[in-house]
Amino acid sequence: MSRHDLIKPVLVLTLLLALVLILAVSFGATRVSWNDDTARTILLRIRLPRVLLAAAIGATLAVAGVTFQTLLRNALADPFILGVSGGAAAGAAIATALRLARFPGVVPLVAFLGACGATAAVFLLARRRDHTDPTRLLISGLVLNAFFSAVILISFALSREADLTAALRWMMGTVFGATWTDVILLSSLLVLAMLVLAFFANDLRLLAFGEEDAKARGVEVERVKLIGFGVASIITGAAVAVSGIIGFVGLLVPHLIRLIWRRDFRFLLPLCALGGATLVVAADALSRTLVTSAELPIGAFTAILGVPFFLSLLRRAR
Amino acid sequence: MIWGAGAPPAVPPPPRRHRPGAGGTAGEAPAPHLLELRNVSYAYADAIAVRDMSFAVGERQLVALTGPNGSGKSTLLKLIARVLAPRQGEVLYEDTPLSQWPAKEYAKRVGYLPQDPDPAFPMRALDVVVSGRAPYLGRFSWESPRDFEEAERALELCDAGHLGDRYLDEMSGGERKRVFLARVLAGTPRLIVLDEPLAALDLSHVQQFSRLLRDVVDRTGCTVLFAAHDLNWAAAHSDRMLVMQQGALALDASPNEVMRVDVMRSLFGFEAETVSIGGRTWIVPGNT
Asked: In three state form, how does the secondary structure of chain A look?
């Protein structure tokens, strides 16, 4: 396929994202208005960063998902199954139990370290001699997830009740209280990660044919795998640190995109970023506008929005 | 466009190394081997797969690699395709050890078809074939129209021109095989390494495939090295047969010298009879 085949899908998804962004900014507890100072402040300081952060998180998780799926040659792979999000959650839970939640920035930092630690652990467990086996990686991720669940439960049992609410909210995933700093940090990291992945995109799409095949085509397989997993894990860790656990995006978006455009990694990478951003922005908009008395978890809405769409596509595709 | 007459490689090939004992002056140097193995051994964790193999292959040859199941054929092909690195000895391509070849440059010259190639996700046949051009692509670059021409020509050659727009997961085993052979050919390699290329083909495609291999060799001067457990087919469609037994090279001979009752008994472990049809020898299981 050539680069030109990408123009139309990118345009379509960009328009869709733009539309969803505009709607998400317009709707909310306060009406948008440029003439009213309060409304303007709410728009610029609260709603805009929140909507943009949702976009960055969606793009990040979807990009991480499609990278994991390509590397593992498995459509079930995503940041959760590999234990990356579990590691982050366990880190955050431990920090909460140790009453570190009152210091700003500590929980995200520990969560990020937890994500990186989980990746390293999964990799070490799956490594045999000079080779990393994709099936062992998936199994290691599953086993570690069970361990992380135990850590989270024990940490919660030891936490003060006052801290628990915040911890639970974080576990459910939220972009409440997003700041411009969050937006800028995560977006820059995402752009950087996508550049690195694009640099290795030709290698990554060959890896989908199997490691031996890729090796015979001149791909430095172990290096590309290490870089791919490293980048996908770091951006997952960053997204989870900022927003808690927003499920389903990393798994669902690459699937959705593949159901419409059955193409290789080079093609999927930008489309997944756009699709992920659109899904999470829409989910966040729903989560804060459907019920006025409470903020509903975004993760629930990514599933509620994604599943019917996914099922209808699945039915149409034979 | 002439088959195999691709654009010159962007990076010049590494300098040819003079082999010990070879004539030092350019005029007297013997014709270089395309591929040479020197005392190559490879072992997996629990078993030796290839022992001390040495042989050389020139240009314009159709070489069959045979041997009983588990004799190390696939491992040997992986060593040649640079999927595995020898534990001992060395593999040389154009007299240069594989370790000294830049990976992409080697991939342009040597095309490898594994036994069960499989893109993990649904893909269009033409996209699969054009991915055979990957060694020619730079960072951030996509296939050019020229690459697509090459891919479509390779599909035509494999009698699969009509399959370009179909998806691989909707194809029969034989159709997939032809698409994957086209993928190898799209890279215009000088040495084509095929691991059991016939496994999923019906008889008419086996015949077509054999003609195709011969055609490619004749027209481009490239060399094809294929593993096959079907002796009759291997003998009928090769110039030379390498027989492996327990990881070692047991016989390196012309098809007529391999297709004999005593060879079948000693190397393949079965009693055979030979039938001669049209000047060609066929092996059939004996009655004993």
From this structure: CCHHHHHHHHHHHHHHHHHHHHHHHHCCCCCCCCCCHHHHHHHHHHHHHHHHHHHHHHHHHHHHHHHHHHHHCCCCCCCCCCCHHHHHHHHHHHHHHCCCCCCCCHHHHHHHHHHHHHHHHHHHHHEECCEECHHHHHHHHHHHHHHHHHHHHHHHHHCCHHHHHHHHHHHHCCCCCCCHHHHHHHHHHHHHHHHHHHHCHHHHHHHCCCHHHHHHCCCCHHHHHHHHHHHHHHHHHHHHHHHCCCCCHHHHHHHHHHHHCCCCHHHHHHHHHHHHHHHHHHHHHHHHHCCCCCCCCHHHHHHHHHHHHHHHHHHHCC
Paired with B285 in beta bridges are B272
Nearest CA in chain A to B122: A262
What is the number of structural domains in chain A?
Answer: 1
A216 touches chain B (CB under 8 A): yes
Q: Which domains are delineated in chain B?
A: 35-116+189-285 (3.40.50.300)
Q: Do the Cβ atoms of B131 and A73 come within 8 Å?
A: no
* Regions in chain A scoring below 70 on pLDDT: 1, 29-32, 129-131, 316-318
DSSP-derived secondary structure letter, B171: S
Distances (CA, A) of A124 to A119, B7, B55: 9, 43, 40
Does A1 contact B142 at a Cβ distance shorter than 8 Å?
A: yes
Q: What is the ipTM of this complex?
A: 0.82
Give the pLDDT confidence score for residue B29 in this predicted structure: 52
List all residues 6 or more positions away from B84 whose beta carbon is below 8 Å from its beta carbon.
Answer: B42, B75, B78
Task: Copy the structure tokens of residue B53.
Answer: 């193999």
Inter-chain CB proximity B114 and A213 less than 8 Å: yes
CA-to-CA dists, residue A98 to A101, A102, A115, A116, A157, angstroms: 8, 10, 18, 20, 12
Q: Do B82 and A202 touch (CB under 8 A)?
A: no
A57 within 8 A of A239, measured Cβ to Cβ:
yes
* Closest by Cβ to A216, choosing from B81, B139, B140: B81
Domain limits at A144?
A: 3-316
CA A126 to chain centre: 23
CA dist., res. A56 & res. A60, Å (int): 6
Across chain B, which has 288 residues, the per-10-residue mean pLDDT values are: 42 45 45 86 88 92 91 94 93 92 93 88 91 89 90 88 89 87 92 88 83 86 91 89 92 89 85 85 79
Residue A62, domain CATH: 1.10.3470.10
Spatial distance between the Cα atoms of A37 and A311, rounded to a whole number of angstroms = 45
Q: Which pLDDT score is estimated for B20?
A: 42
Is there a contact between B119 and A212 if contact means CB atoms under 8 Å apart?
no
In angstroms, the separation between the Cα of residue B250 and the nearest Cα of chain A is 27
